[in-house]
Amino acid sequence: xxxxxxxxxxxxxxxxxxxxxxxxxxxxxxxxxxxxxxxxxxxxxxxxxxxxxxxxxxxxxxxxxxxxxxxxxxxxxxxxxxxxxxxxxxxxxxxxxxxxxxxxxxxxxxxxxxxxxxxxxxxxxxxxxxxxxxxxxxxxxxxxxxxxxxxxxxxxxxxxxxxxxxxxxxxxxxxxxxxxxxxxxxxxxxxxxxxxxxxxxxxxxxxxxxxxxxxxxxxxxxxxxxxxxxxxxxxxxxxxxxxxxxxxxxxxxxxxxxxxxxxxxxxxxxxxxxxxxxxxxxxxxxxxxxxxxxxxxxxxxxxxxxxxxxxxxxxxxxxxxxxxxxxxxxxxxxxxxxxxxxxxxxxxxxxxxxxxxxxxxxxxxxxxxxxxxxxxxxxxxxxxxxxxxxxxxxxxxxxxx
Length: 401
Prior knowledge:
Oligomer: single chain
Shape: globular
Distance between the termini: 58 Å
CATH superfamily: MFS general substrate transporter like domains
Number of domains: 1
Structural class: mainly alpha
Order of helices and strands: HHHHHHHHHHHHHHHHH
């Protein structure tokens, strides 16, 4: 794999840390600002919505500059947002900081996916995308648990200050290692927008929203769920997040490997199993060992969908994939925002801390149905195209003299 993928993975590590570390610190942040847990959950929802808005916005703004330069600008935004979160005097300012940092997220992974795919042979594209996303998944094994521990022991503000430093390291890696990839000749914004006329692109994005949303429905509220329901101590949330991160690393690499071989079957298996495991989490959350195993499985199955879904969007938006790729990253976070909001609603309604797991199971099952529909429409289109070809009049043979 090219060394440039390491630079992209470093940036992804920083972004992954700031995205997920807030979940382990929700009780501390809520306590310091004097807000409820569901209100503190807006830091997850606000970040996710910022990604949804920022992904297309920043990608469009970056059409006039090289992809490398745009990646550098995005990391600068990420650093500024995390510094603002670290010094926020009130909850509203921290929410603004989270949104500022999130504006970099979607475009970084969207543009980074395109750059990663261009650096390798066609049959290795999903693997290259997975390698970049490995930075995000490893963040959940190292960055998020360490950030959670620091936040609980020293203060959550220190955690976000350290995350800003990670952004500086990621920026240096991009400057040093990512090559200047020239923009495709003749590809303009209208070509990028044309990808959204493809029903398969839209279906893939809908699968992204619902499938990964299922993961966040449960994981957003993992800290209160594990301490209030499973009976873990506050400090145990750190190693539970390590288990979730290890599952993500494994699922991401497996998803990347098999997406290059059998993309749609990989989606069927991962989405179906994810729906089942999320439903079971309402029961296993009451037992410490079973809860720990389930958390690892949710990470693995959830992230096994990421490389195949991202590659499917790139394949279907062939020729002008940058905007579609970035918007699909926004779709992941739209699912995060939707599920975090729905999870907070069912908790606030009095259904308990395990209720978001049912929300997640329903979302994942809906994504599986869309995957089946997408494949059926694709097969029908292939048969129709073959029939039209076979019915076309044969070209007359040239006269022989």
